[in-house]
Design goal:
It is a single chain. The chain is α/β, with parallel strands linked by helices. The chain has 2 domains: 7-45; 59-179, Alpha-Beta Horseshoe (Leucine-rich repeat, LRR (right-handed beta-alpha superhelix)), CATH 3.80.10.10. Helix content is 26%, strand content 12%. The chain contains 3 helices and 7 strands; from the N terminus they run αββαββββαβ. The relative contact order is 0.09.
């Protein structure tokens, strides 16, 4: 008996094979997004470069952010979700407001007197600013997603904003001694 293949069965097999091949090709290309691709010596894809189009007032903050961007191979501000710049001697956070994806920030043991630039970072969930020189933190009242705030050892910090934050937020607050 001679096997009989109908035209419709042949077309169906061809479609399935074509779809599978196309899917494999697309998957292969998507895995190569970090590499430059050429076709007949013509560049058809250049991967985005590391994020560099930002500036900060404090060069130590810039250096810390540059290292985080390099380590994470970040190409956009939203990709940076965690910032750890403790013990860095920071005095200003101006310029950090462009990092809209930040969720966790550790700025312990610095020389910060203000958190004003953080008021624009509405995704912050965890903020550690122990051992700084903060005097007020009204900016925290604009951060609806706060889950934890560490403020210990800020001896000049006024307590009125913290009392209001305590009333409107369910965040776990670690207050300086003068505000407990």
């Amino acid at each position: 008996m001679i096997p009989f293949f109908s035209l419709s069965r042949f077309a169906s097999l061809f479609r399935n094979h074509y779809t599978l091949s196309l899917g494999a090709f697309i998957l292969t290309l998507s895995a190569c997004t970090q590499y430059q691709m050429t076709l007949n010596e013509t560049v058809v894809h250049t991967p985005p470069g590391l994020l560099t189009d930002f500036d900060t007032e404090d060069p130590r903050l810039k250096s810390c952010l540059d290292q985080i961007i390099k380590d994470g191979n970040f190409t956009s501000f939203e990709q940076v979700t965690q910032l750890i710049c403790s013990h860095a001697g920071l005095t200003s956070l101006k310029g950090i407001e462009v990092f809209q994806g930040l969720k966790q920030i550790n700025l312990e043991n610095n020389k910060l007197t203000s958190l004003k630039p953080l008021q624009y970072l509405s995704k912050i969930e965890v903020l550690k600013v122990n051992d700084n020189l903060l005097t007020q933190v009204s900016e925290l009242l604009n951060l609806p997603r706060l889950k934890e705030v560490q403020l210990e050892n800020n001896p000049k910090l006024a307590c009125d904003d913290l009392l209001q934050l305590k009333q409107i937020s369910s965040a776990n607050l670690h207050l300086p001694k003068q505000c407990q």
